[in-house]
Amino acid sequence: MYQEQFEHLSFREKLINATRDFFSISLVWLLLLFLLSILELLYNEALHSLPENFFDLLFYSCWMDVLLWLKLGVFCYIFYAILYVIHPKSAKAIFKTFICIAAVIQTGLVLYFTTSLNLLGADLFSYSLGDVQQTLGASGGLSFIAILQFLVVIGFCIAILWWLPKFIKLPLFVSVIYPLASVIVFFTPDISGWEQISLQTTYASNLVTNKSDYFFTSFYYYFFPKTDYDVDIYADNYIGIYDNLDNSIVAFEYLDEVNYPFYHIELDSDVLSPFFNLNEKKPNIIIVLVEGLGRAFTNKGAYLGNWTPFLDSLSTKSLYWKNFLSQGGRTFAVLPSILGSLPFAQSGYLGLGEQMPDQLSLLNLLKHNGYETSFYYGGNASFDNMELYLRRNNIDDLIDKDEFSTKEGLLPEINGFTWGYDDEALYTEYLKTRPSDSAAKPQLGVLLTVSSHNPFKINHQQEYYDRFEQRMEQLEFTDSQKQDYRSYRDQYASILYTDEMLKEFFDSYKKRPDFENTIFLITGDHRLPEIPMATVIDRYHVPLIMYSPMLSRTSEIASISSHQDVTPSLLNLLKSNYKMDLPENYSWLGKGLDTVVNFRNVHRIPLIQTKVNMKDYIVGKYHLNGDRLYEILENMGSRPVNDPEQQQSILDAYNGFKQKNAIITNGGKIIPDSVYAKYAN
Asked: Which comes out higher in pLDDT, residue 12 or 463?
C-alpha cells in the first residue's frame, strides 16, 4: 500500500521526503556518536583515569564527532536520495545498517585504543596476516567481554534506529541544513585547522579524537599517498630551503642524488675515542634493544618516576644520553635505524620485504672486518621482516624463539599464544652460546627483548607485583598517586622485571674473560604507549647507555641524538683505533652521536610513529608534527610555536627528505653496486 502511494508522488515530493527522513535518521546517528564518546570517556576514566576535566574532554570529543558527521553527510545523502527514489524502505534499511556497522567499527577502535593507548590507522594493512594473528593472540585476542560489548552496541543501535527516527519530524528548511553544511565542509580547503585542539597531553588529544575518522583518513592516505612534495631536490636553489634553519646543523655533501639520493661523503668525525682506552684487540660490541624502554620511567629525572634502579646506577658509570630518540614509535623501525641508519620507505624499511635495496650496515661492515655477528630474540624473528633484513645483511647466527636450546622461560600463554621467551631466558641463551675466549673473533651481538611488551604478563608475576608496591614506597608516592599507578601495575611490574634481568645479565657477564674488552649499548626500541604519554615526542624519547670497562671517563649527555647516529659513531671509533677496511662514502641518515653535555640538537631527525604515520621531523630545537610546530625544551617537553616562516622552512626540508625517501620506495638504490660488492660480501 505504502509503495503504491509512493509511486504516485512527483520526483520533487520524493526528494523532499528523502531529505526529511535522511535528516531524522542522521540525527539519531549523531546521537549515537555522542553516546559512544560518553561511554569511551567513562571507560577510560575507569581504566586509566582522565587527564583533564570530563566535560572539557566531552566537548572536544563531541566536536570531533560532529566533524566526522559533516564529512560523511553529503556522500550518505546522495546515495540515500538515489535509493529512496527507487525504494524508500530499502534506502532506510541500508542507511540504518550502515550506521550500525559504523558504530561497531567505532566500538572496536575504541576498545583497541583503551587497551593499547594507540590510535589504530592503516598500519593494520601493513602487517601480514600472520603478524596480525600473532599480535592479537599474544595480547589476549577478543575476550568474551569484548564480544559481549559488540553485541550490546549492535542491539542498542538496532533498537534506537528503528524506534527513534519516527518521532523526529522537522521542517524541510531545517532538514536541508545538514547536507548543505556537509558540502561546505567537504569543499573547505583545509579542514585540519578545525580539528586542532589544545589539550595538555598527547593522551588527552588522542582520547578525544574520533577513532573512525582517524582510521579511515589513515586508510585513504595509505592507499593514495601524497607524492608531490612541492620541492625540487635537484634544483640549484634547493639548498636555499635551509636558510632559515639552525646554522649549527651541518648538511651532507651528496654525490649523486639522482641515482643514490642518500649517498654522501662521510663526515668522518670520531667523538667517542676521547672517552675510551681501548685494548689491542678489537672490542666486542653488544647492543641490547629493550622493548618499550622509555625515558619517561627510566633513570633519574623521569617524570613518571625512576622505575629502573639498576639502569640508573649503570648510567652513572657510562656515557649516558638522557635526551635520546628512537626513530620509530614501534619495533619495526629499530633494526634498520640503529644498524643501518636507513630511510623509512613507505611503511618502514623492513616493509619493503624482498624489494629492500642493497645497503651497508654495522652488521655486514663489521663482518667484512673480521667480526662474528649474531642476533638473539625471544620472539619470532620473521615478525616485521626482521629475519629477512638480518639475512640480507649476512648475519652469522640468528637465534629466535624456534632456535632456543631450552623450552624453559617461555612467557605465560594467553589464549594459547605467547610472544616467546622472557628476558632471563634470552640473556641465558646468549651467554651460553657465544664464545668468550680471547682467541675467538670479536663479536657484534644484538639482543631484542620482549618481556615488556603488551600484555605485560611475566613469569614470577606476584614477586614483581610486590616489588611494584615496594617501589612506590621508595619513590614516596602519595596514596592518590599509588591508586593512579595501580591502573598500570602490569606495565610497571614488567619494567621492574626488565631492569632486574639486565642486572643479572651484567653480573653474569662480568665473570666472563671477554668482559674487559666489551662495549655495551642499551636503548629502547621506542617508549611503550600503554602508559599515557605527555607529549608527542614522548613516544620516541628513550635512553642510550654506553658502558664498558674500557671507558676512561663517564658523562651524562644532554644533547639530542637518535638511533640513526649509533652506527656512524661506532664505525668511526673503530676506524680511528684499528685497521679497518671501510668505505669513504656512506648513505647514513645520521651524522653520529653528539657528546656535548649541554642541551642542544645539531641533527635533522625524521621519525615514523607507525608504518603509515610519518609526520614528525626534528630540526634543531624544533619539532614539526604534521601541521603543528613545537619547540623542544631542555627536559624534552615541548610547547607550541607560532612561527609560520620557521615552520615553512622545516616543512620544505622535511618534504625534501620525503621526496628522497619516495625514490627508495619506488625502487631506488641506497648505494652503488660496486660499493656493496666490495664491503658487504
From this structure: 463
Mind listing the pLDDT tens digit for each residue in 85-97?
A: 888 888 888 998 9
| DSSP character string of 139-197 | TT-S-HHHHHHHHHHHHHHHHHHHHSGGG----HHHHHHHHHHHHHHHT-TTGGGGG--
Q: Which amino acid is at 229?
A: Y
Distance between CA atoms of residues 296 and 561, nearest Å? 17
- For the chain, the C-alpha Rg in angstroms (whole number) is 27
* Beta strand ranges found along 357-438 (DSSP E): 372-377, 397-399
> Distance (Å, rounded) from C-alpha 509 to C-alpha 520?
11
Where helices occur in 358-409 by DSSP H, the ranges are 362-368, 386-392
SS (H, E, C) 604-642: EEEEECECCECCEEEECCEEEECCEEEEECCCCCEEECC
Per-residue pLDDT tens over the stretch 392-413: 999 999 999 999 988 889 999 8
Arithmetic mean of pLDDT over the chain: 87
The pTM for the full model equals 0.86
Give the residue from 671, 592, 583, 585 showing the smallest Cα distance to 368: 583
Band of residue 15 on the pLDDT scale cut at 50, 70, 90: confident
Beta-strand relationship, 284-290 and 604-607: unpaired
pLDDT of residue 147: 67
Which of 584, 559, 590 minimizes the C-alpha distance to 268?
Answer: 584
In contact, 394 and 367? CB cutoff 8 Å: yes
* Secondary structure of residue 86 in the 3-state scheme: helix
What whole-number distance in Å separates Cα of residue 27 and Cα of residue 29? 5
Question: Which pairs from 639-642 meet CB under 8 Å and 24+ separation?
Answer: 640/198
pLDDT at 477 over 70: yes
Q: Are 493 and 465 in contact (CB under 8 A)?
A: yes
Strands (E), 409-550: 443-448, 518-524, 541-547
Cα torsion 638, 643, 644, 645: sign: negative
Give the torsion sign (CA, 154, 155, 161, 162): positive
Segment 571-590 mean pLDDT? 95
**Cα separation, 228 vs 648, whole angstroms:** 16
pLDDT tier for residue 240 given thresholds of 50, 70 and 90: very low
Please provide the size of the chain in residues. 681
Q: Does pLDDT of 193 surpass 60?
A: no
Of the listed ranges 242-246, 301-305, 371-375, 452-456, the least confidently predicted one is: 242-246
Q: Which residue do the cell numbers 671501510 mark?
A: 582
Within 10 angstroms of residue 196's Cβ, the number of other Cβ atoms is: 11
User: Residue 238: which pLDDT band, with cuts at 50, 70 and 90?
Assistant: very low
Residue 232 is classified by DSSP as -
Residues 569, 332 contacting (CB under 8 angstroms): no
DSSP element (H, E) containing 220: helix 211-223
Locate cell 640538537: which residue? Answer: 601
Q: How far apart are CA 527 and CA 325, in angstroms?
A: 9
What's the rounded Cα separation, in Å, for the pair 102 and 96? 10
Angle between helices 11-47 and 54-86 (to 10 degrees): 150
Q: Which residue carries 664498558 as its cell?
A: 548
Q: Residue 485 has which C-alpha cell?
A: 599507578
Q: How far apart are CA 362 and CA 373, in angstroms?
A: 9
